[in-house]
TrEMBL record:
It comes from Dehalobacter restrictus. Keywords: Coiled coil, Cytoplasm, DNA replication, DNA replication inhibitor, Metal-binding, Zinc. The keyword Coiled coil applies. InterPro entries: YabA. The keyword Cytoplasm applies. One of its GO terms (molecular function) is metal ion binding. GO terms for biological process: DNA replication; negative regulation of DNA replication. This is DUF972 family protein. Residues 8-75 form a coiled coil. It holds the Pfam family YabA.
């Protein structure tokens, strides 16, 4: 009888341990779900506001790069892919085509 009582006590202890593990797992799942919602919201916020800014900056950078290349060509250097950085004698069809972007 004493042995059976001990066995039942052990089972009760195991169930209690399992229940508390399930409880903490459930809390963890809730935390992860909240975090997921928060991250999704942040992702939406980024794509809304910052996309325009990134596009504007990209356009600005592209414009500046174009201006720098035009300046470099006016100062007498190739900006085309074939002779880039070498001194231009006369004018270069490739550079002209590249700067006109055609
Ligand atoms: Zn050239």
């Amino acid at each position: 009888m004493g042995q059976l009582y001990q066995a039942i006590t052990e089972v009760e202890e195991n169930i209690s341990t399992l229940l508390s593990e399930v409880k903490s797992l459930r809390q963890y799942v809730e935390y992860l779900e909240e975090e997921n919602v928060k991250l999704k919201r942040q992702l939406c916020a980024v794509s809304e506001a910052d996309t325009v800014r990134v596009q504007k900056n990209a356009a600005k950078i592209q414009k500046e790069a174009q201006e720098n290349l035009e300046k470099l060509y006016q100062e007498g250097f190739h900006v085309c892919h074939i002779y880039f950085g070498e001194p231009v004698e006369g004018s270069c069809l490739f550079c002209n085509a590249f700067l006109r972007k055609d």
